[in-house]
Amino acid sequence: MKIILNNNILRKTLNPFNDIGFVPTMGGIHDGHISLIKKSIQLNKKTIVSIFVNPKQFNDIKDFKSYPSNIKNDLSILKKIRQLDFIYIPKFNDIYEDKKKSHIRLKKKDKILCAKHRKGHFEGVLDVMNRLTTLIKPKKIYMGKKDFQQFFLVRNFIEQKFNTKVIGCKTIRNKNKLALSSRNFLLNKQELNDVEKISKLFLNLKNKIKNTNNINRFLQKSKKEFESFFKIKIEYLENRNTKNLTISNKYQKSKIFLSYYYKGIRLIDNF
Ligand code: AMP
Question: Helix axis angle, 121-136 relative to 148-161, nearest 10°?
C-alpha cells in the first residue's frame, strides 16, 4: 500500500491504470468506510482511498474545527486492509490547484433535506468530487447510502460529466443498529448509549408507517414528540421517494430521511 501526499506523485502513480475504484472519505475511518473499500477491491483492479476534510463543504466553522480527524489512527486501520493499493492524503492546495471559482449550483428542486439546512454544503461536495474525479479518473466511485442525498446528487452530477459510475453501498450499523459515522467519535459512552436508544425508536417508525395513510403528517407529529421527549432538535423527518427524492406518502419505494442535533452534534440517517 502506497501513501500519496501530492498531485505529482498521484498522477505518476495512477497513470498506468485504467480500472481504478475510488473511495472518497474525510477520515475518522470506521467499518462503514471499510465496507466501501472492500467492495472496490472486489470490483476493481486498483483501489484508492482519499482522506481530505474539505473546508468548502462546511457551512459551520465550528463543525469543521471539531470534525474528528486522526490521520495516524486512520492509517493504522487502513494498513490492515491487505489489498488496498493507495491512500491519497492531499493538502488544500492540491485539491484547489485549479484556482477557477466553481460555478456549480443546485437546482431549486434539489434544495431539500440537508441542502435546505446546510447552505452551500452540496455545492462544496460537488466541487470537490469534480476535482477529485478529474485528478483520479476512477472507473467507479463508491459512496454510502447513509448519506443518501449526497450519493444521489454526486451520482447525477458525476455520471453526466465523466465516464465514471457511482455505486451506492448499504449503510453499516453497529450492534445496536446505530448508523456508523465519524461524528459518533465525538460522543462519550453515555451519549452514545442515548443516541442508540433514540435511533432505535426512530427506526421503529418504519414499521409504524406501514399502515398509515398520511405518512408525512404522522412523521410531523412524531417529530414534535421526539423533540419534547428527548430534548433534541430535529431538522427534518420526512418520507421521500428514493428515485427522485420528492415527498411521498407511500410506504413502497420510499425512505424516511432524518437529521437531528444531539448536544450540538448533527446526526443523519435514512431507513
Ligand atoms: P465521510 O468520511 O463521512 O465523508 O464518508 C465517506 C463515505 O463513507 C461516504 O460515501 C459516506 O456515505 C460513507 N459512509 C459513511 N458512513 C457510512 C456507513 N455507516 N455505512 C456505509 N457507508 C458510510
Answer: 50
Phi and psi angles of residue 224, each rounded to the nearest 5 degrees, phi first: -60, -40
Mean pLDDT of 194-199: 98
Sheet-wide strand order for 2-4: 2-4, 86-88, 46-51, 20-25, 140-144, 165-169
Ligand 1 atom closest to the CA of 183, numbered from 1: 3
Evaluate if pTM is beyond 0.90: yes
Q: 50 CA to middle of ligand 1, Å?
A: 12
CA 195 – CA 269 distance, rounded (Å) = 12
Ordered by where they begin, the domains of the chain are 2-169 (3.40.50.620), 182-270 (3.30.1300.10)
The question of whether 30 is a catalytic residue gets the answer no
Among 40, 146, 172, 270, name the best residue to mutate to test ligand 1's pocket (greatest count of ligand atoms within 8 A of Cβ): 146
| Cα dihedral: 217, 223, 224, 225 (round 10) | 110
Catalytic site residue from 30, 33, 103, 117 = 33
Digit-coded pLDDT (tens) for 150-178: 999 999 999 999 999 999 999 999 999 99
